[in-house]
Amino acid sequence: MARGGFPNMGGANMQQLMRQAQKMQQDMQRTQEELQSREFTATAGGGMVTAVVTGARELKTLSISPECVDPDDVEMLQDLVTAAVNEALRSAAETTEREMSRITGGMGLGF
Fold it and tell me: Of 34, 35, 76, 93, whose Cβ has the fewest other Cβ atoms within 10 Å?
């Protein structure tokens, strides 16, 4: 290996690599910011419960159809709420992973 660098890598190639890395970092930051503000919606119980979360994985709204509220079956309502919120969070996580993988070329940087 050449002293102070990599063999067969001229200074121009290294500068180009650094520019590409900077661009990737900027693209990742911009995409993360966009994803954080994006909303993800999921439903459960045939639309009886709807959850909306942000890409920052925060529950924004939760809608429950009045027909779904049965005082004698609170467990069903709890299950529907849990299912809708979890599906919305899963959608946010999958979209984040897919978008970041697109930028990084699938390098698996742990997003």
Answer: 34
